[in-house]
Design a protein that fits this description.
This protein is α/β, with parallel strands linked by helices. It has 16 helices and 15 strands. The strands form 3 sheets. A 7-stranded parallel beta sheet has the order 3-2-1-4-5-6-7.
């Protein structure tokens, strides 16, 4: 089957959505489909070529299209520039689709739906966030799609309440490439690689430190480490950037009395080094705050990477996390509650056998959440 992945973002991108697009397209190609990415040609701070940057499947074609680039016109932060960029990208994609034959159109961009649906080719929408405006038009577009693959069950419930036909909706979170975790270094080697020198239990947070300027729980983790500092039992490994956010949290750690004996900040690392950073830890933390985005729209890539790394997971108890994890596969704490996070860390220390069981169950479960298995299910629902 010939599939066009229609994007409205610059590629490659250092942000998580670019990585996710690459994984989806690689999985489709691995399943034997002919995949072409249609994306706007934009100014890009990432100078590396798409396939080299993501180590992507060379069978995936990337076709750049001419469209308005707000970054080149001083409108990168303006809503008019964004709207016009989406409009011209949609027009360029529609024009291309009139000249090339595809069996299925795939997108994660609701802004492109109008133009894609005009082609008459079946459309799959992978929905990461419900648009804030234009709900009536959006619902009408969803009801013309072959399938809407929501990342979370709260998102599915919201769509049904808005009027999207339930039979068009499936729930499929993100996933993981298990091949990245087949040859993990030993914990000793991994800790040496990231400058961790401690005999304490290493609690890791790996990933971008904020999302759209929103906290992701690093502050709560630092506060928990501060509470446990007198016991000298736990060490924090904070892996992620960008530099400005990293500096902010380093200053916060210092204000809490944490020293280099208590916490290490590596800054951003390449996707290639993420598995090794996970291997350096004993516990992996996802202490997300109870914000609407995390409660309703989030399917964190880090969750599946944590599961694949075979380390016990501590996570905030949110509906989006419960789509995948349970008490059999993770240890839960209350969002925005440092005392609850401290209690979860102490529970693991007191119950190592229980932690091992949850870790093994999570590793078994993640076999269901590989990119190829995910895309098989989406295509089966769409065809």
């Amino acid at each position: 089957m010939r599939i066009a992945y229609c994007a409205n973002v610059r590629l490659p991108s250092e942000r998580a959505h670019g990585h996710q697009i690459a994984q989806v397209c690689d999985a489709l190609a691995a399943l034997g489909h002919d995949v072409t990415i249609l994306a706007p040609k934009r100014w890009n701070p990432v100078q590396e070529e798409y396939h080299a940057y993501y180590k992507a499947n060379p069978k995936v074609h990337l076709q750049y299209l001419r469209a308005f680039d707000p970054n080149m016109h001083g409108m990168s932060t303006g809503l008019p520039g964004l709207l016009f960029a989406n409009y011209t990208t949609g027009c360029a994609i529609r024009c291309t689709l009139q000249k090339q034959q595809f069996d299925l159109l795939y997108t994660r961009a609701p802004a492109l739906l109008g133009k894609l649906l005009q082609t008459g080719v079946p459309v799959v929408l992978e929905l990461h966030q419900i648009p804030r405006f234009g709900h009536r038009r959006f619902v009408a577009h969803c009801n013309r799609c072959r399938i809407v693959a929501c990342l979370t069950s709260p998102m599915r419930d919201a769509l049904i309440a808005m009027g999207v036909e339930p039979e068009r909706i499936i729930v499929e979170g993100d996933a993981v490439d298990l091949s990245r975790f087949t040859k993990l270094p030993s914990q000793v080697v991994a800790q040496k690689q990231f400058g961790v020198r401690t005999k304490r239990t290493v609690v890791g947070y790996v990933g971008r430190l904020k999302t759209l300027g929103m906290e992701k729980g690093v502050s709560h983790l630092l506060q928990a480490l501060s509470v446990l500092r007198p016991e000298a039992t736990h060490f924090g490994l904070i892996v992620g950037g960008p530099d400005g956010d990293c500096a902010e949290y380093q200053a916060q750690a210092k204000s809490l009395g944490l020293t280099e004996e208590d916490v290490c900040f590596t800054g951003a690392v390449s996707a290639h080094d993420v598995p090794a950073s996970l291997a350096a830890c004993d516990i992996l933390a996802m202490p997300f705050p109870d914000f609407p985005h995390y409660r309703n729209h989030m399917s964190p890539l880090k969750m599946f990477e944590y599961m694949a790394a075979e380390r016990v997971i501590i996570t905030s108890d949110l509906p989006t996390v419960r789509d995948v994890l349970s008490e059999e596969t993770a240890v839960f704490c209350e969002p925005d509650n440092v005392a609850s996070l401290v209690g979860a860390l102490q529970f693991i220390a007191a119950n190592p056998d229980d932690a091992k069981k949850r870790t093994a169950a999570a590793r078994s479960l993640v076999e269901h959440h590989t990119w190829q298995e995910r895309m098989k299910r989406i295509l089966k629902a769409a065809i």
